[in-house]
Amino acid sequence: MDLTTRRHWFVFLGAMALPTVVLAQPRLGDDEWMKRFRDFVKSFNAFVNALNDGSFDLLRWQRMRTDWKRLDAG
Predict the structure, then answer these.
(1) Which of 7, 22, 47, 65 has the smallest set of CB atoms within 10 Å of its CB?
(2) Which domain holds residue 37?
């Protein structure tokens, strides 16, 4: 097996090793990513508004963290 064929095999095997989840994740700026970003901003604003009212709302904090994880995973 020559060097070029060996390189092609490494590239092929590397591409096959990528999980389909990585390939299917939303990209920065596409429709799904923008939807997740809007969800995060809404939950962030709700959390900050609760802080402005002088209370720490644990449910809004958890919702904001969940939306951030969804956004960060994309």
Answers:
(1) 22
(2) 25-74
Number of domains in the chain: 1
- 20 part of a folded domain: no
pLDDT one-digit tens code per residue, 19-74: 544 555 667 778 888 999 999 999 999 999 998 888 888 999 999 999 999 888 76
Residue 65 lies in a domain: yes
Within a domain: 18:
no
Q: Which residues contact 68 (CB under 8 A, 6 or more apart)?
A: 40
- Residue 9 located in a structural domain: no
Contacts of 50 (CB under 8 A, 6+ apart): 56, 57, 60
Looking at residue 11, its pLDDT comes to 60
Instruction: Give the CA radius of gyration of the chain.
Output: 20
